């Protein structure tokens, strides 16, 4: 998936992006980082065609993405589960537009819950689950529709650190398991440690209007050790790019 020459401005005329070019290869977990307010979440919505660019193109399999499509799914930072529905029923929501029999929907939902480690919890309601379990249900709902691209907007932001750490340790294998139809994942995060822990490639946004000021390929075997000096080197590189401004450094 890629975006070419993307420009975008808000309705008030403020220009957010200038000539954004990003390509995420098949089988890769990509992250987008940048200072607060630079437009990271807005860019993610442009990837999914939930917003329309001023100019430029969003491409999937070489074809323009002109409107939201089941081929691109999104997990939000707020954990969205409907309290009156079980885990299974929450997941089945993503299959309503597919016009498939209810028994098949239940089978696909059960398979998606198993993928995220929630086999046996199909009949629990959100109030009976931890925050980490509810976010796994959100991921399962996105995966059940068999998208090719998964967009993740600060997916661990509302979890306590221990829960977030546990889910981060599992999420890569969940998303890229042999049964997953996913081709790539694009995550927005402000947490540089989780970015280095999870990503194959990191795109750094900075300046106003925002541009891509760096692309870092994380070449470390998994699982990654945050105490490894190489891990720290990647963190330092990202921090330098995030704090650098046009015309110098601050």
Automatic annotation (TrEMBL):
Protein's name in the database: NitT family ABC transporter ATPase
InterPro entries, per the entry: AAA+_ATPase, ABC_transporter-like_ATP-bd, ABC_transporter-like_CS, ABC_transporter_ATP-bind, P-loop_NTPase
Keyword RNA-binding: no
Entry-linked PANTHER family: ALIPHATIC SULFONATES IMPORT ATP-BINDING PROTEIN SSUB, TAURINE IMPORT ATP-BINDING PROTEIN-RELATED
All copies of domain ABC transporter, residue ranges: 1-232
Name of a matching Pfam family: ABC_tran
SMART domains found in the cross-reference section: AAA (SM00382)
Keywords, in A-Z order: ATP-binding, Nucleotide-binding, Transport
Gene Ontology MF, one: ATP binding
PROSITE patterns found in the cross-reference section: ABC_TRANSPORTER_1, ABC_TRANSPORTER_2
């Amino acid at each position: 998936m890629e975006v070419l020459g993307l420009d975008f401005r808000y309705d008030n005329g403020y220009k957010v992006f200038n000539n954004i070019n990003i390509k995420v290869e098949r089988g890769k977990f990509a992250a987008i980082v940048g200072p607060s307010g630079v437009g990271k979440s807005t860019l993610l919505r442009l990837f999914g065609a939930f917003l329309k660019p001023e100019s430029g193109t969003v491409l999937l399999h070489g074809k323009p993405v002109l409107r939201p499509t089941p081929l691109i799914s999104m997990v939000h930072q707020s954990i969205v589960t409907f309290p009156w529905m079980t885990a299974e029923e929450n997941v089945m929501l993503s299959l309503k537009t597919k016009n498939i029999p209810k028994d098949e929907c239940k089978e696909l939902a059960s398979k998606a819950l198993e993928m995220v480690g929630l086999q046996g919890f199909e009949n629990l309601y959100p109030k009976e689950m931890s925050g980490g379990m509810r976010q796994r249900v959100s991921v399962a709902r996105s995966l059940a529709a068999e998208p090719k691209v998964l967009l993740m907007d600060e997916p661990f932001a509302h979890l306590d650190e221990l829960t977030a750490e546990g889910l981060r340790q599992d999420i890569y294998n969940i998303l890229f398991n042999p049964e997953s139809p996913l081709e790539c994942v694009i995550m927005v995060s402000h947490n540089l440690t989780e970015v280095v822990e999870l990503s194959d490639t990191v795109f750094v946004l900075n300046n106003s209007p925002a541009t891509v000021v760096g692309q870092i390929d994380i070449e470390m075997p998994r699982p990654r050790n945050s105490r490894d000096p190489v891990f720290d080197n990647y963190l330092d590189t990202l921090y330098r790019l995030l704090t650098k401004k046009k015309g110098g450094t601050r």
